[in-house]
Amino acid sequence: MKTYDLVIIGGGPAGYVGAIRASQFGLSVALIEGKKVGGTCLNIGCIPTKTFLSYAENIYHMKNSRKGILVDKFNINKEEIYKEKEDVVNKLTGGVEALLKGYGVTLIKDFASFTDNNTIKAGDEILSFKKAIIATGSKSLIPKSLFIEDYTVDSTYVLENPELGKSVIIVGGGVIGCELAFILKSFGMDVTIVEKMPQILINEDKDMTRPIETSFRKKGIKLITGVGVKKIEKGKVILENDKQLISDKCVIAIGRIPNTKNLDPEKAGIKVGEKGEILVNKDFLTHNKNIYAVGDVVGGIQLAHYASAMACKVVAGIAEKDYAPNLDFIPSVTYSIPELATIGMTEKKAKEEGIEYRVGKFMYAANGKALSMGETGGAIKILANKDDKLIGASIVGHGADNLIMPLVVGVSLNLKASDLAKLVYPHPTLSEIILEALEDLHGKAIHKPKRR
Ligand SMILES: Cc1cc2nc3c(=O)[nH]c(=O)nc-3n(C[C@H](O)[C@H](O)[C@H](O)COP(=O)(O)OP(=O)(O)OC[C@H]3O[C@@H](n4cnc5c(N)ncnc54)[C@H](O)[C@@H]3O)c2cc1C
To answer: Model pTM greater than 0.85?
Structure first.
């Protein structure tokens, strides 16, 4: 039986990133992965969806080409799109395997379970560890009451099956539901989203999700909000108001549950919560003093970059290195046309918490680069507290995923809006909307009419 400084179970963005970082710190590391390295993110999550979304954007721009381009005809070859997605995934997962090898991480391809307080079984092998990290991620949640054979499917099914029929109902208007809606509509399906909350993307401010709702409706995506699902039958979704919707497939996108199946955490004295999440303290330590858990398996925010950052933080602690990421602020992006990117506090959260705040806003339509690109449907909103410290920002519009980054810096480093507004922003760029919104916080946006 070999003993490692660190054994990590699960090779997703938490596990494989943690393994490489641990090796960089000089620890001996084994990574155990039951399926494919890269986890949900690379194989059935972030990367496949973004490959499809990129196609969806291309299709959107062909269907809505600018006046100067006439697109007579184009065909969508779904087989090719799915094949390209596989190529992208294989390139990335192959790259991760090569990196792990290069860093001397022992990769064991099997499912792992705890045998006692400091040993893990993976296939026929027993490994002993000084420290271990559980990074087994999450899986789609389809409650039994909503599962109908050959009708209800999850995001993984959608990402792996080009032929879904002509129409789809997506139950859940969260990030995954919205991204799949945009993709499937672009691929030619009739799409309906059913969301029981009064708006899609319920955690975000309504004024920031409205442009997405408007654009979805314009594209022909049907949005039903404020009504839950009463029952699902084969080919049919019955809403709480007794309205019946018919479709070829129904995608359930109502959340994901922690993956602890066959892990036997209790054999190592690890406690699990009501939803199956591994219970951890603020340092991600489980009830076993040598075992941590990070990523989707601990519940809470389920994002790849957060999973990686949690792993890096734990590994820095284990290796006693002053190199831990700041986990106080986690940006998030919902991809569609338009995209929505956020950091820190939303306006509704600031109101709920009674925080004194000011808002700076600016519209893409008044930005020269946005106009010249024909990308005028967007807006930015920045929140600062009474001391002018940045506390949150949302951008809905073209390029929001990258534009949010200076505001991630501002919010995370507790900077003042006036400090970020003192920087010079290159012209003509979309980044100038950030400057305008920062200056709007002080009533000084140059390209906004004078306040009365
Ligand atoms: C459709 C979709 C789109 C998404 N898009 C985004 C996005 O754009 N941006 C973003 O930040 N996040 C996105 N996410 C979320 C993101 O994929 C997850 O937050 C992230 O993958 C979590 O990383 P993780 O390492 O905790 O778990 P996972 O990525 O789930 O990896 C866990 C790994 O552990 C393995 N495993 C499980 N049990 C065992 C065991 N007993 N033994 C050995 N191995 C085991 C699994 O096979 C898996 O490979 C998306 C998710 C989905 C489903």
So the answer is: yes
